[in-house]
Amino acid sequence: MKKNAMIDRYRWWEVVLMYMGIALFLFFILAPFIEGFLVSLKPLGLLFSTPYKFFPENGSFKAYITMWESVPGFGRYIFNSFYISTIITMVVLALVVPASYAFARIKFKGAGSLLGGFLAVNMFSGAVLLIPLFRLMRSYGLLNTYWSMIVPGVAFLIPTAIWLLSTYMKRIPRELDEAAYVDGAGHFYILRRVILPLAMPGIIVVAITTFIGAYAQQFIFALTFNSKTEFMPLPIGLFAYFGRQEVIWNELMAASFVGIAPAMILIFALQRYLVAGLTAGAVKQ
Amino acid sequence: MGQLALSGVKKRFEKLEVIHGIDLDIKDGEFVVFVGPSGCGKSTLLRMICGLEEITEGDCTIDGTRVNDLPPVKRGIAMVFQSYALYPHMSVFENIAFPLRVEKRPEAEIKEKVGRAAAVLQLENRLHQKPGNLSGGQRQRVAIGRAIVREPSIFLFDEPLSNLDAALRAEMRIELTALHQKLKATMIYVTHDQVEAMTMADRIVVLDGGSISQVGAPLELYHKPANLFVAGFIGNPKMNFIPGTCTAVSPEGATVELVTGASVTVPVTAAGMLQGQPVTLGIRPEHLTQGAGDVSVEITPTVVEHLGVNTVTYADLEGVGNVSALLSGSADVAPGQPARLSFSAADCHLFDAEGQALERRVDSAMPIPAAASAG
Amino acid sequence: MGQLALSGVKKRFEKLEVIHGIDLDIKDGEFVVFVGPSGCGKSTLLRMICGLEEITEGDCTIDGTRVNDLPPVKRGIAMVFQSYALYPHMSVFENIAFPLRVEKRPEAEIKEKVGRAAAVLQLENRLHQKPGNLSGGQRQRVAIGRAIVREPSIFLFDEPLSNLDAALRAEMRIELTALHQKLKATMIYVTHDQVEAMTMADRIVVLDGGSISQVGAPLELYHKPANLFVAGFIGNPKMNFIPGTCTAVSPEGATVELVTGASVTVPVTAAGMLQGQPVTLGIRPEHLTQGAGDVSVEITPTVVEHLGVNTVTYADLEGVGNVSALLSGSADVAPGQPARLSFSAADCHLFDAEGQALERRVDSAMPIPAAASAG
Amino acid sequence: EEITMIVCGDTMDPIHDKYIAEWEAQNEGWTVAPEVVGWGQCQDKVTTLAVAGTPVGLAYVGSRTLKEFAEFGLIEPIPMTDEEKASYYPNVVGTVTYQGQQWGVPVAFSTKALYWNKDLFAEAGLDPETPPATWDDVIAAAKAVTENTDAAGFGLVAKTFDNTMHQFLHWVYTNNGQVIDDEGNIVLDSPEVLAALEAYKTLVPYSEEGPTAYEQNEVRAIFLDGGVSMIHASIGAVSRLQDTDINWGVANLPLGPEAKGPGTLLITDSLAVFSGTGVEEQAISLAKFLTAPAAQEEYDLNAGLTPLRPSPTIDALVEEKPYWAPYIEGIEYGGPEPLFTDYRAFQNIMIEMVQSVVTGDAEPAEALAKADAELKELE
Amino acid sequence: MPGHKSAVLFAWILLIPALLYVAAIVAYPLVDTFHLSFTDASLRKTTNWVGWKNYQKIFDTEFAEIIGRTFVWTFLSVSLKMIIGTGGAVLLNAALPGRAVFRILTMPPWIVPMAIGIFMWGWMYNGQFGMISGLLQRFGLSDGPVAFLAYGSTAFWATIITDVWIGVPMVTMYMLAAIQSVPVDLHEAAWTDGASRFYRLRRITLPMIFPAAITMSMISLISTFNSFDIIWILTQGGPSGSTTTMIIDTYSTAIGSKKFGEGAARAVVICLFLSAFAILYFQAVTKLSRRMTT
Ligand SMILES: Nc1ncnc2c1ncn2[C@@H]1O[C@H](COP(=O)(O)OP(=O)(O)OP(=O)(O)O)[C@@H](O)[C@H]1O
Ligand SMILES: Nc1ncnc2c1ncn2[C@@H]1O[C@H](COP(=O)(O)OP(=O)(O)OP(=O)(O)O)[C@@H](O)[C@H]1O
Ligand SMILES: [Mg+2]
Ligand SMILES: [Mg+2]
């Protein structure tokens, strides 16, 4: 153990207490995954058996192999999720970066209520708006394309993204754009050459959160607006493990783990930026 | 080229008026310093001249053209910010080149101009570094470099040295003065550091609560402050003020009876109606001596600072408040040990009940006594 | 009560050693100032004394007890941070009361002690405000108040005044000095402002790159800097350095031939082996005059600052570099107009090739000439 | 031209694929575009499409929704000839009939029977080879098992889930009860139904802990694990039981005091033809083609569903696999899912009624009266 | 930059794409919903204007009870999220070996598709085969299986716990960020004065992160209020309606029973409730945090 400065030095019981706290906390977070993992290891026939055994007796990773056979398109679903999320993230960024700049760096009448209006979008759950949305998608001719999932996905991810990014951008010193303005730079030039590069950590955070929101949580739109199997994203793909009456639980869980692995790897690689970007941004009201 | 005039300039934020009508003429090539306490509106005024703040009322003209509605770049103005406002993601070269890139100048010209500016500012070896790796003084120079390359006719500086330490500040002060001499451009400089104001300015504008309190050459402000505010603001340690009553007015000056009991005739031009009025006598710490003088007071120093060449004493005087004195290095004073100080009538300033100075009969080009600018 | 000793104290961050073995004894009730350029390790040293940083090697003892592994409270130390570190969500009262609350003192005692501290610091009327609403000076005083209530035997200050403007800084300096006299506690004070160091310190510790360069009373450092570094660091404007070669050593001193061609015998104690060695002659700007002297040089000022009582000129001298002179207020110099300056051998400092000073034959209690602390 | 078709489930059944191809071959210029939608979302999707004005040509729907669709004019009637009607088991046609019209073609059929665990019966001191034939038998057996073994007696289903009502209807239909009579009146509050509710209540202490947390598949899982000794389940349980070492039997659903003969709940899924697609005729033709006796039988056998029509093949099947017998026998006195316009509300009321009795929040009589009143308000 | 007209114009130019987008995709359906709420829209081909009838109907039913339950549910869930999330953040901020890994390990509930996470919880809650009941029996804390979703009170809490689980990672990350932005020197000063770790947590960290906690709780409030999948998948609002919240009720009405008009009216009521609540909350909280921070 590295020798910490005295202020960071813990007494042994503090260390024990804190590790216990962390263990408890992580157990809460991970217990369902443990359960899910155990389910994925058990043969379907032995899934439902008492007494409860923490470690399965005939555990095997067979489900991780058979899952690819039961739902042959699963790889495709993961790809679709990635594809859709990537496009959603790009579209969201394209819309949100300029808007956040306007909110964060330009004073204009009605900015507050407009931002509130954007946030109000989150007050409606997509489920309630499904039917009007469906009509809308149809009249735009977007049904049964990737766009049928991208277009509504973007709309519901915009508000949080604007909120996150504009709080981040508010923290860039005012003098930087003033200096550029005095030097004759136009608004667009300032945005592009000064603010954008500086807001990069914030943009990364927004990109990550948007991507994950789009990757894992876009279920209902995909379900309603798209009926082409080849366009289905991961969450729908997982539902393919629901048979006519029965659920192939072990494969479903295996597939869930396989499906979230790419996003986990992404988070793993970027978690440093995530915490750092949040530190600089969102905390301030 | 760089002549600037403000007439009746006012600024309101929402309802609140913070600049109350400023009239000021600045000659081409002049070095004008705005001083004043925090919040008096120095920055606001500068930002209005620059074009960063709307002018609520009144006119700002540059070389005879009204510029109220022109953006900064069209006013021929460059500004150096207190925080430097360097772009942290760009190299020093790109920072300096920024205004030129905005104007889409050819690459060769940019190289040449930035190179020239860097040479002037001794930044040649730093051009490829990021501002984050520079020292305070170097950053300051980069900020100036960015202003220089545009070749503006007017430079604005908003407390450009306040983030530097004392030694660096002194050094940069000299560099700026040299730069002014080299470029011969008009410079308007905001500070609340008196030493900067006194050493750099051709003229100082003292602002107080959004209005001009006095405009004049540094020594003029020192010797002939127009009012209590300027008198107290210029000079360090601060001028001592002793309340009193005018007992007589004669051609020699005004005779004042001080709260300490002493009486003195101050050589100022005073009207007869001053007689019987309460007045305030001002005497600078550097004019208090341990020798003989027209008036003397007895003090008990609470703090004594030995600066080597000078000794500064601070004391509480009943009915007057804090009194400080700047004595010679060898002065025999110690905390808690009573001492007698005196001053001569000729060094006194006199202010009427409204705080306006009565004109002194001195030459305002007279030098300032020792260590007036200490600290 | 407040006696502190460092012996062989070193600090390494990971691999990097930033403090190279400090030995220092501080007497009870002494006011010691650490000065040195940015990054020399002042803060690190202070934080090790406080307990905020581990001491990598060596011992820190307070009143004879080794305290390396004790937390700050147990060391009887209070610290005032450069940023003040006030708790923004607590009132001034609660901020000052914080250390007492930590110790769970009875409410009545807290009230009384905070009241007393507030009285000393003139904060009585601010007790219910939040720090956010206070001026810089007031915040500073709150931070000191928080240190006072604990009645520590040692106070540590890390550049406590560097966030204040010049006037306030001067004021707070006096308050701190008064406080020291009142509390009679040991105070260790970090700054890079020379004026602060010179006016407040009983002893100054000059740090350079993690080592002590010299320890001594303020005037001792001024008159007898131990090496080039201290000589250049103490005094403002900075001492001028002129390279030369020692041509002879005699009981009168060392004779030096300067690059300017002149030759001078400096009254220092020198060993014979110095002869033929390159040396550096140091002469403070305040010792250059327009009158006659042992040595004279011709300069062409590039910048001339009129401070009223003094005039400061800056010039480039071939083979020497920048040379500055602090002349009288009435000096007849102008930029670009050559002038002849001279100095006397007695005012010179001499440094050997390693930069170590040769002992001067002067009394280190001698006062410093005019305006040495200007700026 | 194209006929869109929504099929619920996870994959296209190969038999259907085969017959669709055949139909396409017979109908030059027509193609069928089937879309498979997971069972959970299938109904909502079909409805959303219809409401949004882009109905599918042909969809696989629960027959219970036919009334709703028909009432709002979303689907086409698909009249059956008497001959067609006669080819089905009794009561089957009733599941797709509303106001004298047929609104869909039955495509899948499910009935329920009683499974019991012979080992547990033996352990509890019961005769393992005699399945309970009446409710009283069930209750007595459940009690015995609960008291004498580690397992619970009966697998009671009361989760907030559609088959809670289904399972309750087993009891209603094995006691000659009804929810709606032939005239369309609500007749829930009857002695027959009350008896069913009371039986439920009696069984609670002899059931698995917390019936309100379990739906039928979960209860079946407990049964497969040997945790309960009796359940009502569909034929699908057989294959699972064969994977275990449980000694099991399957019998007709036990009968209540008022029963006239073996009964069960008859659930069918149908192919419904939506209006306004312009391909209604072809869709009807396709629906009939896919459910023609031979095709349907092939499909039923392959999918392990209760057959829709009697035939020699089926008789042979029962001969060969006797566990099929209860599933066929119950059809005669079986009843349909009652048709309500607001089926979901009806279902909620029924579930609420069952849950309130199971949890002891309400007495059977009052719960029944309340539900009856609510149903009457609903219509 | 000054409030020059060109700047304001530019602001609008920048906003317009996002604005139009949201207006087109969300605002239009919203207006549609609002319109629907005054009709008897259903599967029927025709819809009639019914005025306020749908709204009257809402308050005829047990809606008041549902509102009450929704608020209790939301309040409990948000409070728990904030408490657990902040606690987790405090722990993850400690300078302990392994904390980088621990931080990553808090993310999965956020990344996994919500439905899957809920299924896993469903498994956990299962009385016969689930982990919780299993462990309880194993450790002798319960002598028989406990079906957590079987009873009103346990199901109510079970849905809350699952909702908390899904919301905690976000809260933890935000609060961690907030904790890290508390200036180090405040801790150093307090420590120098002898304040223990816990004392510093109580008197410095927690008050200092209060404003961030407020913002976070506001955001989490909105999503919690609208939390649908969790309850729907776990209990469908049962047993006996004990987990039926406003959004569940709305969904059952609009999608389940296909009473689009009535469903729309409920959606509008939810939105009104939320907006009113959000405004009140924000006002109260800005006042509070202004008092806290200045
Ligand atoms: N955007 C603004 N909105 C409202 N009031 C403002 C604004 N900017 C400045 N003020 C007010 O105008 C007055 C003048 O401010 P200004 O910044 O010009 O002072 P200053 O002299 O530069 O002070 P300092 O020396 O502290 O920089 C202050 O009272 C300030 O509070
Ligand atoms: N935590 C740390 N890790 C690594 N290096 C450090 C750390 N803290 C300080 N240093 C290094 O130690 C050296 C001394 O730093 P210190 O802060 O003590 O300087 P200082 O004299 O206080 O400077 P300043 O006047 O700028 O405050 C510097 O080179 C600095 O980069
Ligand atoms: Mg300012
Ligand atoms: Mg430091």
From TrEMBL, chain A:
<keyword id="KW-1003">Cell membrane</keyword>
<feature type="transmembrane region" description="Helical">
    <location>
        <begin position="77"/>
        <end position="102"/>
    </location>
</feature>
<feature type="transmembrane region" description="Helical">
    <location>
        <begin position="194"/>
        <end position="216"/>
    </location>
</feature>
<keyword id="KW-1133">Transmembrane helix</keyword>
<keyword id="KW-0813">Transport</keyword>
<protein>
    <submittedName>
        <fullName>Carbohydrate ABC transporter permease</fullName>
    </submittedName>
</protein>
<feature type="transmembrane region" description="Helical">
    <location>
        <begin position="252"/>
        <end position="270"/>
    </location>
</feature>
<keyword id="KW-0812">Transmembrane</keyword>
<comment type="similarity">
    <text>Belongs to the binding-protein-dependent transport system permease family.</text>
</comment>
<keyword id="KW-0472">Membrane</keyword>
<feature type="domain" description="ABC transmembrane type-1">
    <location>
        <begin position="78"/>
        <end position="270"/>
    </location>
</feature>
<dbReference type="InterPro" id="IPR035906">
    <property type="entry name" value="MetI-like_sf"/>
</dbReference>
<dbReference type="InterPro" id="IPR050901">
    <property type="entry name" value="BP-dep_ABC_trans_perm"/>
</dbReference>
<dbReference type="InterPro" id="IPR000515">
    <property type="entry name" value="MetI-like"/>
</dbReference>
<feature type="transmembrane region" description="Helical">
    <location>
        <begin position="12"/>
        <end position="34"/>
    </location>
</feature>
From TrEMBL, chains B, C:
<keyword id="KW-0813">Transport</keyword>
<keyword id="KW-0997">Cell inner membrane</keyword>
<feature type="domain" description="ABC transporter">
    <location>
        <begin position="4"/>
        <end position="234"/>
    </location>
</feature>
<keyword id="KW-0067">ATP-binding</keyword>
<dbReference type="GO" id="GO:0005524">
    <property type="term" value="F:ATP binding"/>
</dbReference>
<dbReference type="InterPro" id="IPR008995">
    <property type="entry name" value="Mo/tungstate-bd_C_term_dom"/>
</dbReference>
<keyword id="KW-0547">Nucleotide-binding</keyword>
<keyword id="KW-1003">Cell membrane</keyword>
<dbReference type="GO" id="GO:1990060">
    <property type="term" value="C:maltose transport complex"/>
</dbReference>
<dbReference type="InterPro" id="IPR040582">
    <property type="entry name" value="OB_MalK-like"/>
</dbReference>
<protein>
    <submittedName>
        <fullName>Carbohydrate ABC transporter ATP-binding protein, CUT1 family</fullName>
    </submittedName>
</protein>
<dbReference type="GO" id="GO:0015423">
    <property type="term" value="F:ABC-type maltose transporter activity"/>
</dbReference>
<dbReference type="InterPro" id="IPR017871">
    <property type="entry name" value="ABC_transporter-like_CS"/>
</dbReference>
<dbReference type="InterPro" id="IPR047641">
    <property type="entry name" value="ABC_transpr_MalK/UgpC-like"/>
</dbReference>
<dbReference type="GO" id="GO:0055052">
    <property type="term" value="C:ATP-binding cassette (ABC) transporter complex, substrate-binding subunit-containing"/>
</dbReference>
From TrEMBL, chain E:
<dbReference type="Pfam" id="PF00528">
    <property type="entry name" value="BPD_transp_1"/>
</dbReference>
<feature type="transmembrane region" description="Helical">
    <location>
        <begin position="263"/>
        <end position="282"/>
    </location>
</feature>
<keyword id="KW-0813">Transport</keyword>
<feature type="transmembrane region" description="Helical">
    <location>
        <begin position="204"/>
        <end position="225"/>
    </location>
</feature>
<protein>
    <submittedName>
        <fullName>Carbohydrate ABC transporter membrane protein 1, CUT1 family</fullName>
    </submittedName>
</protein>
<dbReference type="GO" id="GO:0055085">
    <property type="term" value="P:transmembrane transport"/>
</dbReference>
<keyword id="KW-0472">Membrane</keyword>
<keyword id="KW-0812">Transmembrane</keyword>
<feature type="domain" description="ABC transmembrane type-1">
    <location>
        <begin position="67"/>
        <end position="281"/>
    </location>
</feature>
<dbReference type="InterPro" id="IPR000515">
    <property type="entry name" value="MetI-like"/>
</dbReference>
<comment type="similarity">
    <text>Belongs to the binding-protein-dependent transport system permease family.</text>
</comment>
<feature type="transmembrane region" description="Helical">
    <location>
        <begin position="71"/>
        <end position="92"/>
    </location>
</feature>
<dbReference type="InterPro" id="IPR035906">
    <property type="entry name" value="MetI-like_sf"/>
</dbReference>
<feature type="transmembrane region" description="Helical">
    <location>
        <begin position="104"/>
        <end position="125"/>
    </location>
</feature>
<feature type="transmembrane region" description="Helical">
    <location>
        <begin position="7"/>
        <end position="31"/>
    </location>
</feature>
